[in-house]
Write a structure and sequence with these properties.
binds zinc ion; 928 residues
Length: 928
């Protein structure tokens, strides 16, 4: 027998597979699936492995089911990150060098070339392709492209022409996340930290301080009436600056921020924070108040100065209480100004004292603040002396008043910190002018997407809510950048289209990627693409024959059937691509995406995988150490695709042993030639169920469920089979049938072992293209399955009783339930009302005579029916099983199993006390 050697299986399968998965339009029905293409800026880890192996398993499954399958792959190299990486490598940044040289194992001579960003993406694109191939991904590599290919840029220009003409590309001023080091807006993908932070519009309340202003940022301008003091940090330096020509005092950080938000800022002098403490400021709406010291004031939050409203803000209340408990500022009292149901006179004091919070560090402080904020906004009313209006009205009115009369302006700031760019710099809010946006805020556009989403298959179904939420809250998206790789923005060629905006319709490009390469990019006008994708004819189209071939490809493959991606992309990429599709293919409903499968995340030994934190296990290392099939089977079997999975080496090792067991079993069984027994008919009958369930699971993308059936289900049947075979019997020729189906059921998961075994089984062609097994109803034998189920359950019962009584048995008696109990079983199993059925039974004359014996039996049988699986109960209700015959024919087996004589008897004619406990499908067992 040839040895189990995954390395060898891989080698020979790779030879068989060269060009095997290149897929062309044909007569078969198509199945087109694709997965978010990778950004190849570093090595692949096992988390990436799952992302690409799930679609591969699905591709292999549908290929075997007789569809023409397209599974393409390209590489997304657009954007700034790789430019930053090359800069850092050029500057010999030790952290970056360590990551690339030591973790990603880039040889020094190659690393030296990384000062050119294109070299980085070319290097890793080649590596990705190599590792994907090593994993057995059945990709049509002829269609590979990278997003800076000139032909791809022409395609993007065409796509954007349609977006522009539909009015979705606009220009305006807008606050955006911005990195001053990169001099570029910052996208979700460019962030190390703070990707959930939102830009919030604050009102600056301008307090007078001598000839200058001290501005404080607030979301609650109406609380100005309750200000008792300002807070300044005594440990930091403030600066006096001229903002638009007028003197302000703010933190140094704030001065930089204001300069990014349409203000001229000139720094004049530094003022230590401690010099501000105990000075007075004033505002027309609250009069004169002191500045108090507070080290919690963050110079990087808005202006670095805070107005204090202790009656309504828990943080202010506690800070003031702390100072007063230390004996300072005792004359200051909170000034309430809002009445709100559920809180006392001074809401902040009330809330803090009720919850027993002792200091500012208490982690309940944020929640408490939020609670009061929401309660006051929803149902709060200002006191009569402050106008008596509801908070939600007063807030806007006070803000407007301040803007009009008291010099207030707006400042943009994040709602949480820190927000850190990939380059390590703190991200700030900048107002960009001449910035281009995709107008995702357009309600009509949103509606088109929402309408189409309703027709889409989404897996798992619960992500639908998230898609709808995203469509709802999407705001205008800054779609151009100044730095990076990518396609020039057609209406301002100094800018580039940013990565999340040039990767939305490329699934259509895959259909022609291998053919469009043959055409000179200069000839690729928008009219050319209009013809290929929209069928719009125009005069003088070049290379008409080639265009027709591409049109044919597109019409055959599009729309795609399923797109696969991680769940964190719902809030951007996965939704963006729908927006773009509904515009580009506006009048072609039949070209819009059909379905999406959304993945969970990957953990490594329980912690989130992250390249930047070094917590990764490289996919290539995993394949080398454990074998590609092991990696695949582990990733597919440990969780369903939408669940999070956790990579643990020790579990992966046991997966490898499972594959070896499978291999050895098939090799041992495949040539069995004996005559079939009843147990063979049972094995083949059970196989039909496993085929049916595996197929149903894969239809629903449940890779784990499919493996449970296809691997563990069949393996456990085989264990029982061997146990039941008579001694000195090697099994029958039906085992070959089983092995042939088994190898095919597992082939999508472990294709390398699959190809090897398929050859050993003398299967025709490649297993990758072999017909998927189909369940044959004629081979299902309910009677035999029931008989074996009864036997297996009885063996289990005997084993557990034997453990309990701890004597060496001399004989075993199996007492079978009498016919009248079978009758009760049938009545209860068929009844729709389990509550009244016992009464019904007791109306039968024969049962009435049995009295308590019959009611007791009915109760026990009710419990038993609850415990038995429905597929056992249903047939038994129709027709009782001849249990006596089942046990008689298995007597030799039972005697061999337990090594004692076995007696089979009717409970009615037995004088054993225990015999009366016999129930249908649960005989009484007496061990002596
Ligand atoms: Zn940066």
């Amino acid at each position: 027998m040839s040895e189990f050697d995954l390395g060898k299986f891989e080698e020979s399968a790779h030879e068989l597979w060269t060009h095997a998965f290149e897929s062309n339009p044909g007569r078969l029905e198509k199945f087109y699936l694709n997965v978010a293409f990778p950004y190849p800026s570093g090595a692949m880890h096992v988390g990436h492995g799952r992302t690409y192996i799930v679609p591969d398993v699905v591709a292999r499954f549908w290929r075997m089911r007789g569809k023409q399958v397209l599974f393409p792959m390209g590489f997304h190299v657009t954007g700034a990150p790789v430019v930053g990486i090359s800069k850092r490598i050029a500057n010999k940044d030790p952290k970056t060098i360590h990551l690339y040289r030591d973790l990603y194992k880039v040889p020094q001579n190659v690393l030296d070339e990384f000062i050119d960003p294109l070299t980085i993406v070319r290097h890793f694109a080649a590596e990705y392709q190599r590792v994907m191939t090593a994993c057995g991904l059945s990709i049509d590599w002829r269609r590979r492209f990278i997003t800076v290919d000139p032909t791809y840029s022409k395609f993007i220009e065409w796509q954007w022409k349609h977006l522009y003409e539909a009015g979705h590309v606009i220009k305006g001023a807008h606050p955006v996340r911005f990195c001053t080091v990169d001099d570029n807006p910052v996208g979700d993908h460019d962030l190390l930290e703070g990707d959930k932070a939102e830009v919030i519009k604050f009102t600056l309340v301008m307090f007078r301080f001598g000839d200058a202003f001290i501005p404080t940022a607030t979301l609650r301008p109406e609380t100005i009436h309750g200000v008792t003091n300002l807070w300044a940090n005594p440990n930091i330096a403030y600066v006096k600056v001229l903002v638009d020509g007028r003197p302000w005092i703010v933190s140094r950080e704030a001065a930089e921020k204001l300069a990014l938000q349409d203000h001229t800022v000139e720094i004049r002098e530094e003022i230590p924070g401690k010099d501000l403490v105990d000075k007075k400021v004033s505002h027309p709406l609250c009069g004169e108040v002191p500045i108090l010291p507070a080290t919690f004031v963050d110079p990087d939050m808005a202006t670095g100065m805070v107005m204090s409203v202790p009656a309504h803000a828990p943080f202010d209340y506690i800070a003031l209480r702390d100072l007063q408990q230390a004996g300072h500022y005792r004359q200051i009292k909170p000034i309430p100004l809002i009445k709100v149901e559920g809180y006392g006179e001074v809401p902040a004091q009330d809330a803090v004292e009720k919850s027993g919070i002792r200091n500012q560090m208490d982690n309940r402080m944020d929640t408490l603040t939020q609670e009061i904020y929401s309660a006051e906004f929803a149902k709060g009313k200002l006191f009569e002396k402050y106008g008596g209006k509801p908070v939600r009205v007063a807030r806007d009115e006070v803000a407007a008043l301040m803007a009009e009369k008291y010099d207030s302006i707006v400042m943009y700031e994040f709602d949480q910190r820190p927000v850190v760019c990939r380059c390590g710099n703190r991200v700030k809010v900048k107002i960009l002018h001449d910035q281009w946006f995709l107008k995702y805020s357009d309600p009509a556009w949103k509606q088109q997407v929402a309408d189409h989403l309703r027709d889409m298959a989404l897996v798992p179904p619960e992500v639908r809510i998230e898609f709808n939420r995203t469509i709802d809250w999407l705001k205008d998206w800054a779609c151009t950048r100044r730095v990076g790789l990518g396609t020039r923005f057609p209406w301002d060629t100094a800018q580039l289209i940013e990565p999340l905006s040039d990767s939305t319709v490329y699934m259509a490009y895959y259909t022609i990627a291998h053919k469009i390469r043959e055409i000179d990019p200069k000839l690729l006008t928008p009219e050319v693409f209009d013809y290929i994708f929209l069928g719009k004819k125009s005069p003088d189209l070049p290379e008409k024959k080639k265009l027709d071939a591409m049109r044919e490809e597109f019409l055959y493959w599009y729309p795609y059937d399923f797109r696969f991606s991680a769940k964190d992309l719902i809030s951007n990429h996965l939704t963006f691509q729908l927006f773009h599709h509904v515009t580009v293919f506006e009048n072609q409903k039949d070209k819009l995406p059909r379905g999406m499968v959304v993945f969970g995340m990957g953990l490594l030994n329980g912690a989130k995988m992250s390249s930047s934190k070094g917590n990764v296990f490289l996919l290539e290392d995993a394949v080398q150490e454990f074998g590609a099939d092991t990696v695949r089977m582990f990733l597919m079997g440990s969780a369903e695709p939408w669940q999070d999975f956790d990579w643990r080496n020790e579990l992966v090792l046991s997966t490898k042993k499972q594959i070896e067991r499978f291999y050895t079993t098939v090799m041992e069984c495949k040539d069995a030639a004996g005559e079939p027994h009843d147990i063979d008919r049972w094995l083949i009958s059970r196989l039909q169920l496993h085929i049916e369930k595996t197929t149903a699971a894969l239809d629903n993308f449940q890779t784990r469920q499919a493996l449970q059936e296809a691997y563990f289900g069949i393996e456990s049947d085989l264990r029982w089979y061997w146990r039941r075979l008579p001694e000195n019997n090697d099994g029958s020729r039906e085992l070959h049938t089983l092995c042939s189906a088994w190898v095919r059921l597992l082939a999508p998961f472990i294709p390398f072992t699959g190809e090897h075994l398929w050859k050993e089984l003398a299967g025709e062609g490649l297993v990758s293209f072999a017909p998927w097994p189909s369940a044959d109803k004629n081979l299902v034998n309910e009677k035999i399955e029931l008989a074996e189920e009864l036997l297996a359950r009885t063996v289990e019962d005997i084993e557990s009783i034997r453990k309990l009584i701890q004597i060496t048995p001399r004989a075993l008696t199996i007492a079978i339930a009498p016919a009248w109990k079978q009758e009760i079983f049938a009545i209860i199993a068929q009844s729709t009302d389990r509550n009244t059925v016992i009464k019904e039974i007791m109306k039968i004359e024969a049962m009435k005579k049995r009295g308590k014996e019959a009611t007791d039996a009915a109760k026990q049988i009710t419990t038993l029916i609850h415990r038995l699986p429905p597929q056992v109960v249903a047939p038994l209700a129709r027709e009782p099983l001849n249990e006596k015959a089942v046990f008689e024919s298995a007597r030799a087996f039972l005697e061999h199993e337990f090594g004692v004589p076995v007696h089979i008897t009717e409970a009615d004619s037995s004088d054993h006390v225990k015999a009366v406990t016999a129930l249908p499908f649960k005989p009484a067992i007496v061990i002596e």
